Amino acid sequence: MESGASVSTVREVTWELLRNLGMTTVFGNPGSTELPFLRDMPAGFRYVLGLHERVAAGMALGYQLGSRKPVFINLHSIASTGNGLSAIQDAWYLHAPLVITTGQQDRRHLLAEPFLASRAVETVKPYVKWACEPQRAEDVPAAIARGYYLAMQPPRGPVFISIPMDDWTHECAPPPARKLSETMLADPGALDEVARALDSSRNPALVAGSQVEEDGGWHEMLALAEHLNADVYQDPIPSRWTFPRGHRLFRGGLLAAQQPLANQLAKHDVVVVLGARIFLYYAYVPGDPIRPGTKLYQITNSPLDAASALAGDSIVGNVAQAARYVRVHARPRHRATEALTTRPGPGPEHPITPGYLFHVLNKVMPRDAVIAEECPSSKGDLDQQIVLDEPGSFYSVPNGVLGFGLPAAVGLQMALPRRRVVCPIGDGSMQYSIQALWSAVQNNAPVIVIVLRNGDYSALKGFCDFTQVGRNVPGMDIPGIDYMKIAQGYGMLAQEVDNPNDLDPALRAAFAANEPRLISVNVDKGGKKTMGMDKSVNPPDYR
Ligand SMILES: Cc1ncc(C[n+]2csc(CCOP(=O)(O)OP(=O)(O)O)c2C)c(N)n1
């Protein structure tokens, strides 16, 4: 409350509420409809400006993922659903509790469709848990509180409140301070069945998904795997890595297509999926989702994922608690296991191969580094070369919409000042949220951006080959972009690497410096595989 104020306004009550809810960092991009709220921002708050709504919301998402706390966003009117929607969608799929507010035109002439009239509430609905424009000005703080509480219920996710610009000056009473529990436990009877199936299994496997991390279950996942001595796979196209990559039980990632994935798991008679969909597919390769005869279980915090699974029995509840319950109730298993044999790393070539780039990066980066990745055609190379064993080490595009990586990296770096965030990103992907470079500089976020500059949309060309579309497709090349100049224009130090021998020193220098840097690496064209698959998987034919 501002000192000397005789009555509380919606604006004063809202700032106080945000403080009480611990949301003191505001990510945003302002417009006229937000100014009555933002004026005289109280002490103790920090405003992080994104030059585009995709970047503002995307940085907030990265900050949420890194801090594991709810984050407040203030975007501009309908621009949030246009420019910011892809970041909101990412938050939806990553179950990230973001409380997103936007301005709306003045209520008193809304009916006349003024400039900046916003239909954001209707537009954003499929990708938020709740979207609302309060009926009355004095309901604004209570709506934000309700949104916050809902955002924090499992599965967590974004909520959206549109606020007419004349609401802020109205008088209002603060909503009561309340506590809501934030964990829902799985049905023990259903988990007993999983434990019994594991007890009678010959060769069980576990699949780790991103919800393991959402529910703070890294150590429980690991403990369960070691208790069972079971092979562990990462879910297809993972948005997070949720099992240590160098562990003796780790067997790599699953392929994102039905039959190839079922083949990968065919030797297991019981498969328990923890915190992932069944399954996330990319190419349509019909087949059994799982080999007939294999018992498939899913433990998920998402009723939606449980309902939409193509096979298996699903149990809804907190993944960390469920993993613990199963460990306590299933018998330990003993067998000799060995880690996947590491092949010799790829050698230096000209042009530099993405495999070599990631091999060198893996050698020089700190073991607690964080990767925010968006390099479509070289995902497979990254997956093979980068070995990170710490929780919270890897984040990637959750639903295929490019523009996630760069702002997420900046937000993660702001939330995790003691760890170094690296953003390997395709030269095409980079363009969807390029303004995040400026935010990294302005916020002293020492993120290392590694541009894989191949001059084209290699992943799409690869998909053309994979699915027999052919190469006669427009819009596949992106020549003539100088990433050095772009970075320098935003005030970021930048360096180009063309010779493979320069890679190691360039990366070492970037890690030694405590400032944001861009390294533009001229790489060989990718796309030889599509999400780790070649034609042997019988891809769809779109001729
Ligand atoms: C917002 C958005 N627009 C377009 C696409 C389609 N798309 C998928 S991969 C890709 C190419 C990205 O190019 P680049 O980052 O250079 O990576 P490369 O394919 O060369 O590895 C495009 C345009 C998308 N997924 N998201």
Structure description:
The protein has 543 residues and is an alpha/beta fold. The chain has 20 helices and 18 strands. The strands form three sheets. A six-stranded parallel β-sheet has the order 2-1-3-4-6-5, with helices on both faces. Strands 9-8-7-10-11-12 form a six-stranded parallel β-sheet. A six-stranded parallel β-sheet has the order 14-13-15-16-18-17, sandwiched between helices. The N terminus is likely disordered. The chain binds thiamine diphosphate. Thiamine diphosphate (TPP) binds next to helix 18.
Q: Based on DSSP secondary structure assignment, what is the total number of beta strands?
A: 18
Q: Give the distinct bound molecules.
A: thiamine diphosphate
The radius of gyration over CA amounts to 24 Å
Strand content: 15-25%
Low-confidence spans: 1-5
How are strands sequenced across the largest beta sheet? 2-1-3-4-6-5
Alpha carbon gap, first and last residue: 65 Å
How many H/I helical runs? Answer: 20
Describe the main β-sheet briefly: 6 strands, parallel
Mean of residue pLDDT values: 96
Q: Provide the structure class.
A: alpha/beta
**What percentage of residues falls in helices of 4 or more residues?**
25-40%
- Large-scale geometry: globular
